[in-house]
Fold these 3 entries.
Entry 1:
Amino acid sequence: MDELIELLEGVRDDIDFRTTTDLIDGKVLTSFDIIQIIASIDDEYDVAIPAAEIVPANFNSAEALYALIERLKG
């Protein structure tokens, strides 16, 4: 999880990814941020996120993203 937080902070260092749970619903992340996060996850974890998985529930928090990565890796 710490690696993911570092990855997310590399995209936006002005957000507390450990506590924020409305990254999409609260309009904290822009569409460009999301594209950067998807590309970074693909590079770092070797996980391709299918378009069907790009939904707010999977991107609202670092925990949700981590669960998505784990699910896709498994």
Entry 2:
Amino acid sequence: MFKPIVNLFFPKVCFACLNLLHDNEDTICVNCRHDLPVTNFHFDNDDTVAKVLYGRAKIEQGTALFRFEKKGLVQQLIHGLKYRGYENIGALLGNWLGSELKTLEHYQNIDVVIPVPLHKKKLRKRGYNQVAKFGQQLAKALDAEYNDKVLVKVTNTASQTTKQRFTRWINNDELFAIVNMGAIENKHLLLVDDLITTGATLEACITVLNKAKNIKITIATMAIA
């Protein structure tokens, strides 16, 4: 009987459209789930993600759950996740994509899931890495290890969303470092991030990770612009 009172003072809203959720809905309403622009790259063997990195970084395979559209539902979700503390969005999207990837042979041999890291100053300010729960749920679905101690960001930079394409490319050299290299040698890595645009950040991460011996790298992101 207390539920209506709780909802009155702490209403549950959809993180995409911000409308009130019904009792049987959680995090995202049914209408928004239906309207989200899923890519199905991993089901269709679509190489769109690989093409973004073509000639710059070699990957085994890559996928993104959604297409990012300016002022669209996916932008609302990612902004809520990054800037409003809605960490549940990361877990939801990790569960969503993980439930699909675990049915596909290529993703069943992933050994380690590695998130694109935040610089320690940004992590301290935000309080969490927005990719963490996404990566953790993917690792759980794929029966893989989640390791956020191998790849570290050594240079603090402004938000990538405010930069032009060329600036993103030239400023991503030597942003990252690898520690405990032995933890990933001879393994298939799943590198995860929230959004792939030019691919500059992922390229920088891959360049560093490739210093480890005999690794394979696959990419999974929440969205692609």
Entry 3:
Amino acid sequence: MNNPLEFYFDFISPYSFIAHKDLIQIKKKYSINIIYKPILLGGLHNLHGITAPAFIPSKAKHMIRDCKLIADKKDIKFKFNSYFPIKTLNLMRGVLIAEEDNYKQEYINQIFESIWGDGLNLNDQNIIDRILKNMGVNPKTFFLRSTTEIIKSNLKKITKDAYLKGIFGAPTFLVRGKIFWGQDRINFAIDEIKK
């Protein structure tokens, strides 16, 4: 299966967390090239002029219950983060730094797990620093790099490119230019790769 699966995500999205956990299992089962594409979900929503479901009270209530149902069904440890919304701007920039330094997958795993598995307050810089130190990363250097123009502009570019492709939410999977939106569409994306 030579066609890559592009996975557009933001740590703020609990559905992206569930999709990420699915992708870990899928990668074990199939020989698929999965490309993690970090985006700023808030920025993407602004470009489209839409409001995230989490900020519409009636939808937010359903989303919390829905995520729990899906996670329980898939036997995924999940806790809706009581500190939501987590400010993910620097965390998403961090994906690009981790990619440059070759610890991208470990970083993504740790941040997702900290937010949605353990329910930690990643709005607290001390907690983020501790996570980075546990990965052997210098927090001060990490966050200095996150404010460099190249990192900032790269994340904006990936988000803008997603918008131009018609992507409007997270998680989204892209295969051969076809969009599959939502954690529950992952198998359709896999089927497209198998064609």
